[in-house]
């Protein structure tokens, strides 16, 4: 209590925490509590590209290795009969060829996003072991709603963006950016534990490894 | 949604579940399915034991210096443009959230599945203030539309089968928004599609989102939400205002610590290598207004108990539910709290205190088989805490047990009393009742009363020497 003012909830909670921890020696610092980190940061094994393809397929995501981005994008869109595509401001024109790209610049209203056939982005990092694509809202990925509202997400992953393990990915990521970790299409197992792909997020995730 | 109030003690509450064949079938199928998936993905992780040890140690470090980390988190979130609020109990948290929603002028909010907001009964509090909270997780939607209670941490509608869910959607969706499609079938795909259509417009129109968080990083102020369906991303991303209610034990010290928990949680929880979606954000993001409500609500009481403190390591994965023989038969509702299963049996009595027969009965809702400890990704020794709580229940005054133990002490302390008791028991053995009378019947309800032998060892020794 300072100056006779009533104690704030903040002060009350902190006081209760401190009194609850009266068994902890005063001179103990947080870093004095040992944390053994004997888990593996990296591992050897099969090629990371092969592993990523295997894990993504396991989630029933569509995945292809593509030497030419523009050609693969065109082919994917033709196969789905998707015409109008949302595209973040920083996706290179070289990926687009003759695609009808609607740039998210200025930001498209959500209702308009909802009416588009899909979205095309790059990514920040991909984790092979868990089949995860991480987006960090970089110029070729855009704001978070962009990859959420449309029903189809086409994501381009460069080989040098692929790491094997979760610790390797965490090390590369910047927590000050909004991050979205995506492992396969949206899914639920809430009804009798049967997995159903596609609830609220994109029902189709397609990955092009270039 | 109905709240867990005035719940009977565990034995009564579980008896109806135990005799419900449909419920037992659903529970058995669900728990065994997730159990097998978990075992498979944990088995393929060569360093699981090391990850588990690190996870437990990181949480212990956090808990032993929680005051330091709370202040650090507050500073980091504030520096990133968020506003931090502190709530000592449920009423305070509900008042803070209600006021924040009112200040936006909105009367509707969308919600991500969150244990903390269920624990404090936020939906009911908002409703009383004229604000409608829409649950958006598929299972929570089933629970909310069915005016039901959740029965599992991860899959709250585990007690409902597809026919029941179809019935709930067909009859209730219309009164909450877009009605279910005509002729709705009961296959999971059609039901999920109905939920998608029902909620889509709501997401696009939502101005206020409410969430919890799986982790809060003290060092950076980053909050983390793991989910599967994308409803979480919708609620976290689309609204202009985001309010997150987070228990004070959800902190991890550093960004790097997430490399441990992002491996432990998905594999333990849904039995997946990774859950479909995880959102991580720091402060006010992409033009949003962000409020963080830090919730105590009994957690500091748990922290004060040197044995029970480890319960606060819990990352709500629900692996312990899926391996528990008691949970598998009794179901989630009998635990009388949003935290069912083994973790609920140690968390609820500590959060609320031994306040009623329900809390006193929970430490006994276990066979002490230890399966929960074995699967716990942060190595909470649940049997140890259960035993400690049992001793507290007895000390606190479990009347029947105290009287019986007092009598036993007298008899066993004196050779004369023991011999008198044994001799009279032997003589009366023909009249041994099958069920004990009065308050002692609680003991014989679940056991056969043993018949005393004709003579005791001492009598036999004296006679045949």
TrEMBL record, chain A:
<protein>
    <submittedName>
        <fullName>LUD domain-containing protein</fullName>
    </submittedName>
</protein>
<dbReference type="InterPro" id="IPR024185">
    <property type="entry name" value="FTHF_cligase-like_sf"/>
</dbReference>
<dbReference type="InterPro" id="IPR003741">
    <property type="entry name" value="LUD_dom"/>
</dbReference>
<dbReference type="Pfam" id="PF02589">
    <property type="entry name" value="LUD_dom"/>
</dbReference>
<feature type="domain" description="LUD">
    <location>
        <begin position="115"/>
        <end position="210"/>
    </location>
</feature>
<dbReference type="InterPro" id="IPR037171">
    <property type="entry name" value="NagB/RpiA_transferase-like"/>
</dbReference>
UniProtKB/TrEMBL annotation, chain B:
<keyword id="KW-0004">4Fe-4S</keyword>
<feature type="domain" description="Lactate utilization protein B C-terminal">
    <location>
        <begin position="396"/>
        <end position="463"/>
    </location>
</feature>
<dbReference type="InterPro" id="IPR017896">
    <property type="entry name" value="4Fe4S_Fe-S-bd"/>
</dbReference>
<feature type="domain" description="LUD">
    <location>
        <begin position="70"/>
        <end position="285"/>
    </location>
</feature>
<keyword id="KW-0813">Transport</keyword>
<dbReference type="InterPro" id="IPR017900">
    <property type="entry name" value="4Fe4S_Fe_S_CS"/>
</dbReference>
<dbReference type="InterPro" id="IPR024569">
    <property type="entry name" value="LutB_C"/>
</dbReference>
<dbReference type="InterPro" id="IPR037171">
    <property type="entry name" value="NagB/RpiA_transferase-like"/>
</dbReference>
<dbReference type="InterPro" id="IPR024185">
    <property type="entry name" value="FTHF_cligase-like_sf"/>
</dbReference>
<dbReference type="InterPro" id="IPR009051">
    <property type="entry name" value="Helical_ferredxn"/>
</dbReference>
<feature type="domain" description="4Fe-4S ferredoxin-type">
    <location>
        <begin position="311"/>
        <end position="380"/>
    </location>
</feature>
<dbReference type="InterPro" id="IPR003741">
    <property type="entry name" value="LUD_dom"/>
</dbReference>
<dbReference type="Pfam" id="PF02589">
    <property type="entry name" value="LUD_dom"/>
</dbReference>
<protein>
    <submittedName>
        <fullName>LutB/LldF family L-lactate oxidation iron-sulfur protein</fullName>
    </submittedName>
</protein>
<dbReference type="Pfam" id="PF11870">
    <property type="entry name" value="LutB_C"/>
</dbReference>
<dbReference type="Pfam" id="PF13183">
    <property type="entry name" value="Fer4_8"/>
</dbReference>
<keyword id="KW-0408">Iron</keyword>
<keyword id="KW-0479">Metal-binding</keyword>
<keyword id="KW-0677">Repeat</keyword>
<dbReference type="InterPro" id="IPR004452">
    <property type="entry name" value="LutB/LldF"/>
</dbReference>
<keyword id="KW-0411">Iron-sulfur</keyword>
<keyword id="KW-0249">Electron transport</keyword>
